[in-house]
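Table 4 source record.
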Amino acid sequence: MDKKDNLLSISEMAKLRKVTTETLRHYDRIGLFKPAYTDPSSGYRYYTISQYEKLGTIKELRQLGMGLTEIKEYFNNRNVRKSMELLKKYHEQLVKEIQEKKAVEKVIAEKIAFMNSIKDMPPAGRIFESDLPERYMVTYGRMEPEKEDISYALTRLEASMDEVAPVLASNRLGVYSGMQLCRITEELKPGERFEAAPFILCDRKYRKSEYFRRIPAGHYVCAYYNGFWATCSEFFEKIEDYMKKNHLEQEGFFYQIYQIDITLTDHFDETLVELQIPVMKC
């Protein structure tokens, strides 16, 4: 009887387990999964149907992320205890990966929802008033004069946070300043920037961080504008006029939040910054 009778060719075994023939050849070369018989004249590899189970186990362990060397060690005198310990270890890793991917999915969904909501925002240039709740941020609290210093500080802040996805391309980045609008409009030349401290909006889980700060609840004069922080003194003049007409005066820091920035678009006219100025009646 021919030794190849009742054996599976390499292509038949590969098709059964939905792997490539090259994968089986590689497993043979490293001694992980050797054929039951190799034809000495042709070099063709043949397998028994009982080997189907072992190849299935190898495939499952690879799907769990196990390396080939570790799989070889596993097949060296495997037993129930060894199998249980291995499966528990990789099950824990798998659960952790799934949780991380769910967290990433949640962040991406929030970013998509935010971008869909942009069309419902007030048009750029319109001034309005809003009551805003208490919010939280992380910030070094240092006033930076240059755009590059702002970007560097935001990058370092993000690196210090325990986030599952990049903070960039979200409406959580901004700067704040304690300067009065009247000083900005009177003292700064067109295009000249004022000093501002960068921040990232966060939740209360960062309350133990030394960089954690509260943004007080209150009544705010708000507006959206196209551009970058502190570059539109003419627009600030319009807000100052609005506040004077409505008998409002600035109360504390004002905030500029990047709603759409260069992480989302290369077109300047698509950038959008939200200005929030805490006010009180005077």
